[in-house]
Specification:
It comes from Streptomyces sirii. This is Carboxymuconolactone decarboxylase family protein. It holds the Pfam family CMD. InterPro entries: AhpD-like, AhpD_core, CMD-like. The chain is an all-alpha fold and about 160 residues long. The protein has a single domain, classed as AhpD-like, CATH 1.20.1290.10. The protein is built from 7 helices and no strands. It has helices at about 10-30, 35-50, 50-65, 70-75, 85-100, 110-120, 120-145. Helix 2 runs parallel beside helix 5 (about 85-100) and helix 5 (about 85-100) crosses helix 7 (about 120-145). It is globular and about 45 Å long.
């Protein structure tokens, strides 16, 4: 499969993606735990069907020491016992923030309160930014059919 667009060859994409990548790095450097970042990025990408991002975040998480069991269970995190309460709250917020169009009212107060119980304001800010960033990245990749499978851990960092 070939991508519909080559973002690396586009002057417009080059200008825009420079800022997008800087924003992504700012979130990556935040106080939100790396494991939480990768689990959230993976779950949002699963919901949106972004094979490129699933490939990337699965490999980056594994390279950072994440276990294959936890990576495989992200799609069914509600029934899995391998995630902390904080990670579960982050995954719930990620799902609610990604599925805004599926439910009236967006992210409800109970979901927000659960996340706020486990993360301070800076971490919550980073979590919301991560969820939003991944939704944007997923859409870029899905619309342009970026192929998955050849990503190397750390390739864009």
């Amino acid at each position: 499969m070939d991508a519909r667009l080559n973002f690396f060859a586009s002057a417009i994409a080059g200008k825009a993606l420079k800022h997008v990548m800087a924003a992504g790095q700012a979130v990556k450097d935040s106080p939100l735990p790396t494991a939480t970042q990768e689990l959230v990025a993976l779950r949002v990408s699963q919901i949106n069907g972004c094979a490129f991002c699933i490939d990337m975040h699965t490999k980056d998480a594994a390279a950072a020491g994440e276990t294959s069991v936890r990576l495989h269970l992200v799609a069914a995190w509600r029934e899995a016992t391998v995630f902390t309460e904080a990670e579960r709250a982050a995954l719930e917020l990620a799902e609610a923030g990604t599925r805004i169009a599926d439910g009236a009212g967006g992210v409800d107060d109970a979901v927000w309160a659960s996340a706020a119980k486990h993360y301070d304001e800076e971490q919550l800010t980073a979590l919301v930014m991560m969820i939003s960033f991944m939704n944007m990245a997923n859409r870029l990749n899905v619309i342009s059919q970026q192929p998955a499978g050849s990503y190397e851990p750390g390739q864009f960092h």
